[in-house]
Amino acid sequence: MEPKLSGLILSSVTLENFRNYSERTTLNFGKGITVLVGENGAGKSSIVEAIHFALTGELLRGTIEQARTKDSKKKYFEVELELKDRDNTVIKILRRRKETGEAEDELRICYCCDEEKRFKLIARGANGVNEKIRELLLSDENSKEKDFFKSIIRLSIIGQGELINRANALQSNSASKLDFIDIPLGLSSFEKANKKLGEFSIRLENISDLISSFTYKVNDNSLSNLCGSKKLLGKKLSELKNDYEKKKVELESLEKERAIVERELKMMEEKEKELNATMENLLSKSKELEQARSKRDEKEARFKLLKNKLEENEARLKELEEKTSKKDDIINKVQAIRYLLLYNEAKNCLEYIKEIYNNYKDYSASLNDLKSVQENIKQLEREEKELERNRAMLVSKREQIEKIKADLEKYENEAKKYLNMLDSNEADTLKGKDLETKIVELKDQFKAKIEDLQRKISFIESSLKTFKEYINEIKRAEGRCPLCGRELNEEHKVELIHKFEESINNNINEKKRLENELKDLKSTYEKAYESKNSPLMKYLSFLQHEADVLKEEDIEKINSEIEEIERKISENESTLEIMKKIENAYRNSESCKRNLISIGKMLEFEQISAENIELLEKIVKEYEKLGEEYLSKTNDGNIEISIEAYNKYKKILQEISNSESLLDSKKKDMENIKNEFNSLKLEIEELDKKIESLRNVEEELKKVRSEIDAVEKDIQNKQRENGELVISIDTLKKELAEYEEKIKSYESGLRQIDDAIYKLNVLLKVRELYDKENIPKWLRNEAIAILSNEMSNTLSKLDLTYTEVDIDENLNIELIDKNSARSVLLSQASGGESVAVAIAFVLAMQKVIQKMIAGEEVFDFLILDEPTTHLDDERVRDLVEVFRTLGERGEGVPQLIIVTHDEQLKEAGDAIYEVKKIPGKGSFVSEVLE
């Protein structure tokens, strides 16, 4: 925290763009008397205002915008004030305001001990700078009071005419002159405070349910009412406390009863716990019993199942033994059917081979060659299908060409009709030409005609423009005609204008006609050549897309290809007939071959010859013999000879073979089942013994359950009893809480009332002290004593007749001559004496404020703005003499700054500045050197 400053004087002030000072202007001040002299309106008071603004941040007049130099291009104004205290510590206050009103204030300090004279930034912003200035200059208790600081400023900067106004006021008998003391000291505030205290009222809210609220004023009647409310509330509080104690006793009784019930309940719960443990043990045994019974039932079921299984297996063994006994008969049947089937198939195969051999003796092909015949047939069939597809495609194409020809003829007829409809004259010129050429040439004729019409319209538009220009030239012309050069009178002018206007109208009509003709021609052209639906465009488009299809050589080629395909198809059909006969014989032989393979016998020959046919006849006889031999060994002579029967008996034979294997397996299973059957029988006997030993568990379980039910019922009754006690206790606790809350509320209300009584007594005492006959009177008397002493000290330094003053409580001043003991009232003093008294009064009031408010001397400077206003020459001379005397003797204030238009005051100055205003440039300051 920075140390306090005292005895500050001004070092310099700098103005830029402030009021009339557009250029940056700096004034330096020293100790002694500085006089700023200049004509009225030159800008002297602006310097005083700049100092005031730097110290307070407030303008003496106008707005921020008005304080900025008028018509200046700069968007801000700036004031910088430098002050120095008695220890040579320097502070710089910078106040900058933008046109928006935004403040850019800074406060810097340079301590006397800093040899490098560096300035430290200690505050920024308008409020920050204001607070820091008060903190540096005033005592801690006064630094936050803006009014104290302003009082000191008002005594250090005396505005225009204020000095003489004070002199005149001090000479008068008006009671208002006491304001010179009361306002700076704030004594009038005591009277206002006394009045406000009389009107002041305080409202107490939510005191209690008896007294919801209470409003009292600072008077004895309110004090009496508060005391009555306190007595009433105190009595009710005492009654509440008695009831509260009774409820507490009742609660203690219920809580003891509840403790007994809870002990009994706990014992019951322990008994229930023991019974539950017994119950768990019995349930475990019961579960063991159930498991034993369940296990016995499972074993019993398994026992019965094994018993049934034994019976079933015995029956199955018997069945299998019977089945295997028929094996030899089935084998004979299978062999008989097999050889008889071979006989039939070999016989059929022999017949087909004989057919091939007898019908195609010249065809000495092998069986593999017969296979290739089949492939040839398939190839011929594929070729025939492909030829049929090609023929169908060519026929379709031929039909398409015929349709295109018909469509072309249709479009051609429509195009011819459209051409005739367009313009019979143009159509005539195109006779003898093919239709496509006609359409194209007619299109060119349309375009040529459209261009011709457009040229005609352009020519007419140009003529219209020329005629209009002629008319304008004729209208402007005087003397001679601008067209023919002859003399131009009004009659000739009217005649020419009429002639050209008539030509304009004719051309306009012709232009409209040509435009309509052009519009119709364009419409016809667009419909004929730009619309897709135009018969001409349809024809051209069709011709363009289908021209290739209509070539005669292509059509002839298609017809030739169709004839060639039909010839090949005819040749294929005769070849196929021969091939299919060979194929049928081959297929039949192959079928026999497959049947022989399925039976298990294959004919081993490839060539179809007489030797192989003879060999095949022997094989057929051998198959017949073997089949009859095996058939005679069977028990059934009427068996079916077929592949199905063969497969059936073969399957039965396989089943018999499987049954033989199964028979051995079943015998082993029977032995295992018998062993398990005997083991199960023993296990069931053991389980029956265990079930018998646990039979009493169910009775014991039933008994324990009955005991548990009884205990649970007792517990429920006790819990209900305990619950009722809990409810009663909770109800009592709530009532006690309500009592406590109400007691607390009443006690709080009593505290509020006691506090209010105390505060009211204090306020009554304060109000008594604030009465004009108490503190204000004491302070004023003290101030008058200091004022009288300080004024006498100042006057004694001047060469006046009267060197002392005596001031009464109404600020009536009496001047005293110590040498002659003579005295006069201030109103009887001379002009010079009254001015000297006024100055002494200002200097003395600075001492009063500093001693009674600030606690020390804050400023060692005094600024007087136009102190000679309303003074005659004699009193001005007296004022000059006072200033000169104070200056020569080093009395008064260390730094006095006089702002004046009166040249006489220069005589009193140690330093003199002239302030001048140059029209269009602003105010300027220059030092006057002696």
Automatic annotation (TrEMBL):
Protein name as it appears in the record: SMC family ATPase
Occurrences of domain Zinc-hook (ranges): 436-533
Gene Ontology terms describing biological process: double-strand break repair
Native source organism of the sequence: Fervidicoccus fontis
Alphabetized Pfam families for the sequence: AAA_15 (PF13175), AAA_21 (PF13304), Rad50_zn_hook (PF04423)
GO molecular function: ATP binding; ATP hydrolysis activity; metal ion binding
Binding-site positions, Zn(2+): C481, C484
Coiled-coil features, chain-numbered ranges: 230-330, 363-582, 656-756
PANTHER family, per the entry: ABC TRANSPORTER ABCH.3 (PTHR32114)
PROSITE patterns registered for this protein in UniProt: ZN_HOOK
UniProt keyword list: ATP-binding, Coiled coil, Metal-binding, Nucleotide-binding, Zinc
